[in-house]
Amino acid sequence: MGSLGFWRLAQADPEWIAAVDPDGTEYTAGDLLARANRVVHGLRDLGLRNGDGFCGLVPNGVDGLVLYLAALQAGWYYTPINWHLTGPEIGYIVADSEAKAFFVHERYAEEGERGAEESGIEAHRRFAFGAVKGFRPFDELVGGQPDALPEDRSNGATMHYTSGTTGRPKGVRRKLAGIDPDDSAELMTFLLGMFGMTPGRPAGNEPQAHLVTSPNYHTAVTQFGGTALQMGHTLVYVDKWDAEETLRLIERYKITNTHMVPTHFKRLLGLPDEVRKRYDVSSMKWAIHAAAPCPVPIKQQMLDWWGDCIWEYYAATEGGGTIASPEDWRAHPGTVGKAWPISELLIVDDDGQPVPTGTPGTIYMKMAGTTFEYKGDKDKTEKNRLDDHFTVGDIGYLTEDGFLFLSDRKADMIISGGANIYPAEIENEITMHPKVADVAVFGIPDDEWGEQIKAVVEPAPGAEPGPELAAEILSSLEGRLAKMKWPRSIDFIETMPREPNGKLLKRKLRDPYWKDRESAI
Chain centroid to CA 230: how far? Predict the structure, then answer.
């Protein structure tokens, strides 16, 4: 194979700036390589062998990146843990993943300590960045270790835990190929190659930089950032996302690519005109977004502002997906694209039978050459499969020429008076109202109709919540949305419960309305 892969690039040009922490500290590729090598030597001394794994509860930045690079060259699984979880939830993942080491940053000391106790992981396998009670300092693991490349290197992988709509999260585990880590990394770059992305430093190419906008415990964030690094792009980390700060970083580091969610677009577009005009964003070539359907007008406004660099895809931790170039999207507004060259789509009804073109059904996907299992849960792995396709429960339809349009998550669909209603469609219309900062639509119990439509709105700054605003929002739907899809009532909330990657925690909003019912639909 060729000349891509972080370890090859770092040896060829150790002085290249490979990562920038949120506080602005810059790290060379040579420095990152030496750190990752020491972690490998240290963990091998601790007894870790091929196929073992470890967990990290660390914020965005170089500490987590070093753990990731160590696992990827030593044949291990690395599980980054969501830092919003509580001790027992963290402990479940550490135990379930059979972690042979657990790294915690002092920022998350309290829940990290609880998680370690809950998991029962031995004290000598706990390591801290900073001070965490009952944890060994990270330096005890790496101090005195050589920074030379370890022997017997083979590819590792991340094992992310999917939040899952029901029950405990599950680790998505792929079989390791047992190949050279750089060759494996080069295969990974296929992902960014689909978007037409090109290598950066040090192979005599133009410098490129990738902005990490969301928490690194998300699969896509790790994949896109990790793969950009393997192509020689500089990773620039943010700690807490902020719209104006994003524009400042794009200009400061001449960011060429990033991975975003529609909520980021909405907040960027909400900045005053003079703020938007203050920054030069012309370096951006690939602003890739996913994770939620993007309302057509919002994407249109982003394309008008940033030009044809807004790419979209639809995929899952489990593998497979679609991609929409800016040109594709302009020709088919609202699409999430066509199947990847190595992926297939299948849309079926509730009996698992394929549906005609244009008819919504459950989306099944498959990706050539990859298999996965939910760790320790054969039943769940099988239940979500149809032959060799799998689903994450989304609903959508295909056009004649193979473009996929998403309707909604199956779990979020409202059945009112026997009709299927997709909240995403209603949310897309309401979110366009200038006095709406954020919105969620879901079904609540209705004795006559089964479910009625409820909207919860976070008002825009300066907008007064109350019956008048509710009436104004509803009347704006006139002529844009069939009356049967209008919310029967609108409640207001100060801040919408979203994960930092933009994913809405709809269950938090919906549960209170269903708590007195025997079964939540």
Answer: 19
Residue range 250-266: average pLDDT?
A: 92
pLDDT digits (tens, 9 = 90+) for 31-55: 999 999 999 999 999 999 999 999 9
Of 203, 193, 209, whose CA–CA distance to 8 is shortest? 203
Distance between the two ends of the chain, CA-based, in angstroms? 52
- CA distances 95 to 36, 79, 103, 116, 117, Å, are 24, 12, 14, 9, 10
Residue 347 confidence (pLDDT) = 92
CATH number of 336-411: 2.30.38.10
Name residues whose C-beta falls within 8 Å of residue 237's C-beta, 6 or more positions apart in sequence: 19, 20, 21, 22, 60, 61, 62, 212
Per-residue model confidence as pLDDT tens digits over 355-381: 999 999 989 888 766 665 767 777 766
336-411 matches 413-514 in fold: no
Distance from C-alpha of 424 to C-alpha of 430, rounded to nearest angstrom: 10
> Cα–Cα distances in Å, from 160 out to 32, 211, 374, 439?
23, 21, 10, 28
166: tokens are 């029901």
275-280 long-range contacts, CB within 8 A, separation 24+? 275/244, 275/247, 276/247, 276/305, 278/247, 279/247, 279/248, 279/250, 279/251, 280/250, 280/251
- The pair of structure tokens assigned to 472 is 């104004």
> How far lies 504's CA from each of 290, 327, 412, 500, in Å?
13, 29, 11, 9
Pick the CATH number of 413-514 from 1.10.260.40, 3.30.70.260, 3.30.300.30, 3.40.50.720: 3.30.300.30
Q: Give the residue-averaged pLDDT of 122-131.
A: 98
What pTM does this model have? 0.80
* Residue 322 neighbours by CB under 8 Å, 6+ apart: 313, 314, 315, 336, 337, 338, 339, 340, 343, 345, 404
Cβ proximity of 62 and 39 under 8 Å? no
- How far CA 310 is from CA of 40, 198, 322, in Å, comes to 38, 16, 15
